[in-house]
Amino acid sequence: MKARVTVTLKPGVLDPQGRAIHHALNGLGFDGVEGVRQGKVIELDLADGTPTAAIEDMARKLLANTVIETFRVETL
Amino acid sequence: MKARVTVTLKPGVLDPQGRAIHHALNGLGFDGVEGVRQGKVIELDLADGTPTAAIEDMARKLLANTVIETFRVETL
């Protein structure tokens, strides 16, 4: 089975990478960009029947820094 | 309007970060992990009415290295 964990910074946490992308997009002439936030997406190939709770556990223990990041689990 | 660009490595491209995560998950005792691929997700706040073609252009010119990465655009 496949699962996807999307990890993004919590609102209010400074996102220097997002700022850099925003600045670069403006520099390339893309108008109308009001904000940019960058996160991670981790695609997992798992044994069939792996419970969502186990995937959330992986996210809490390794994939996300839960102090400054939130995560979302999707099973595909 | 909001859009999300998901950038992932093309199949066959070596993913050392994914390998490192896979190794760490096994080390933490998570069995049943058969493969891990890591990518980026960029969330954009855009002026209303920004066409998808412009977002794809941003992805081609900046957000993704189209030699080794593919991207997917979602308008939210």
From TrEMBL, chains A, B:
<comment type="similarity">
    <text>Belongs to the PurS family.</text>
</comment>
<keyword id="KW-0963">Cytoplasm</keyword>
<keyword id="KW-0067">ATP-binding</keyword>
<comment type="function">
    <text>Part of the phosphoribosylformylglycinamidine synthase complex involved in the purines biosynthetic pathway. Catalyzes the ATP-dependent conversion of formylglycinamide ribonucleotide (FGAR) and glutamine to yield formylglycinamidine ribonucleotide (FGAM) and glutamate. The FGAM synthase complex is composed of three subunits. PurQ produces an ammonia molecule by converting glutamine to glutamate. PurL transfers the ammonia molecule to FGAR to form FGAM in an ATP-dependent manner.</text>
</comment>
<protein>
    <recommendedName>
        <fullName>Phosphoribosylformylglycinamidine synthase subunit PurS</fullName>
        <ecNumber>6.3.5.3</ecNumber>
    </recommendedName>
</protein>
<dbReference type="InterPro" id="IPR003850">
    <property type="entry name" value="PurS"/>
</dbReference>
<dbReference type="InterPro" id="IPR036604">
    <property type="entry name" value="PurS-like_sf"/>
</dbReference>
<dbReference type="GO" id="GO:0005524">
    <property type="term" value="F:ATP binding"/>
</dbReference>
<dbReference type="GO" id="GO:0005737">
    <property type="term" value="C:cytoplasm"/>
</dbReference>
<dbReference type="Pfam" id="PF02700">
    <property type="entry name" value="PurS"/>
</dbReference>
<dbReference type="GO" id="GO:0006189">
    <property type="term" value="P:'de novo' IMP biosynthetic process"/>
</dbReference>
<keyword id="KW-0436">Ligase</keyword>
<comment type="pathway">
    <text>Purine metabolism; IMP biosynthesis via de novo pathway; 5-amino-1-(5-phospho-D-ribosyl)imidazole from N(2)-formyl-N(1)-(5-phospho-D-ribosyl)glycinamide: step 1/2.</text>
</comment>
<keyword id="KW-0547">Nucleotide-binding</keyword>
<dbReference type="GO" id="GO:0004642">
    <property type="term" value="F:phosphoribosylformylglycinamidine synthase activity"/>
</dbReference>
<comment type="subunit">
    <text>Part of the FGAM synthase complex composed of 1 PurL, 1 PurQ and 2 PurS subunits.</text>
</comment>
<keyword id="KW-0658">Purine biosynthesis</keyword>
